[in-house]
Amino acid sequence: MQFRERIEKGSFRVGLLLATCIFLTCSALSLFAQNPPDKPGSAAQSAPPASSSQPVAPQLPSQPQPENKPEITKPSLPPGIDSKTMKPLYEEVQEDWSSLAIGASKLEPEPPLALPVDVEDKFTRQLVQVKWRPGDAIDLWIILPKDVKKPGAVLYLYGFDQDTDRFRNTQWDERVTAGGVAAVCFVSALSGQRFHDRPMEQWFVSELQESIGSTVHDVKFILDYLAQRGDIDMDRIAMFGEGSGGAIAILSAAADPRIKAVDTLEPWGDWPDFLAKASVVQDDAKHDDFVKPAFLKKVEPLDPVKYLPQLKIPLRVIQVHQVTTPPSESQDKIKDALPKQAELLRFEDMMAMGSRLGNGRLFDWTKLKLQEAAKQPGKLSADGKTGTQIGQNGKSEHP
Questions:
Q1: Residue 9: how many CB atoms within 10 A of its CB?
Q2: Cβ(173)–Cβ(235) below 8 Å
Q3: What's the N-to-C CA distance of the chain in angstroms?
Q4: What is the pLDDT of residue 41?
Q5: φ/ψ of residue 96, rounded to 5
Q6: Do residues 391 and 397 lie in contact, with contact meaning Cβ atoms separated by under 8 Å?
Q7: pLDDT of residue 20
Q8: Buried b (16+ CB within 10 A) or exposed e, 45-55
């Protein structure tokens, strides 16, 4: 009896709980049907509730916004193209490359663009961009020793395959300015940063007359700029050149008396033999064109061998026997053309040269000549009476 009463009471409680749940569920469904929730992002959800005292303005359809189309501009011309004639700028240069002097060449210097000075412990370094030829801006590095008022300067011009990287090297800069001498550095025409907007088949040797002639003219304008600066002693100017830069240094000294001494390492010259046998020339598939009479006639007025006997200033030529550019025939022609006061150093190989001139000692010769000029202004030790030859072992021999 008690068991039955418990079952009946339990059933009543379960039924009551079930009825309560059904009632609550139905009430919720009824409320949901009367007020459905707004969809996310709908106007009703984002708009603020309207005041009961003011009518709600009808929502107008939104106006389509105009598309942000990029502005159409005309394509810009390459930097080496003249906007008026549509020709490459290098084709419009009016310059007489056959002459060491500016002569009838139409070259007008533009105002230089100088960057801030980089101050180091032992020197200052500044990049100045100079220009006097259309489309041919030149990066000129001016490296001055610290605490030296109006130092003498050496112009540095390396081979056509070299760029300006070494001029930004702190160790190199310290070596060339040691002893209180300034360094003025640049690259030749059709070299490094100056080779641009040209057909790839054109290069320093294929355009040899332009390459050499232009750079000799550049030296004149660079010296003019240094004189305008006022912080260089223009009575003490020397030039160092390597390879093609050596040929240009010799020609520049013949053209400009402001250069008081010239130092060269394996200078190019003797164009007939050089263009026929130099290894650097043989790499060009069209090298046979460089020994044709028309080509040789163009570069004949720019042969260093022609001008070497005329130089009266201190001159040093360094040659390495195992180097194939220039070839041995050209080395001998240059040797035979040296004036009496010239110093000739001949080494068997680069190792022999390095043991004597390494660690910055290569630069000591020009510094010595500028020191002599400081002691005796207007006169350097080049009286034409004392020439010196250095044999294969690097020891001095008198001719």
A1: 10
A2: no
A3: 148
A4: 44
A5: -95, 95
A6: yes
A7: 53
A8: eeeeeeeeeee
Residues forming a β-bridge with 145? 123
- Exposure string over 231-244, b if 16+ CB within 10 A, otherwise e: ebbbebbbbbbbbb
Kindly give the pairing relationship between strand 315-320 and strand 343-347.
parallel
Q: How far apart are CA 9 and CA 13, in angstroms?
A: 6
**Phi first, then psi: what are they for 75, rounded to 5°?**
-65, 135
Nearest alpha carbon to residue 338 among 256, 240, 264: 264
Strand partners, 343: 316, 388
Q: How many CB atoms lie within 10 A of CB 371?
A: 14
Give the type of residue at 251: L
- pTM for the predicted model, two decimal places: 0.76
* Residues listed for the chain: 399
φ, ψ of residue 153 to 5 degrees: the values are -140, 150
Instruction: Look up residue 238 and give its DSSP letter.
Output: E
Q: Where are the alpha helices (DSSP H) in the chain?
A: 2-34, 43-46, 170-177, 208-229, 244-255, 271-277, 279-282, 293-299, 304-307, 328-337, 350-357, 364-375
Q: Tell me how far CA of residue 120 lies from CA of 2, 51, 56, 166, 174, in angstroms.
A: 109, 75, 75, 16, 9
Q: What angle in degrees, to the nearest 10, is found between the helix axes of 208-229 and 244-255?
A: 60
Q: Which ranges of the chain have pLDDT less than 50?
A: 1-14, 16-18, 29, 31-34, 38-64, 66-67, 69-70, 72-78, 381-399
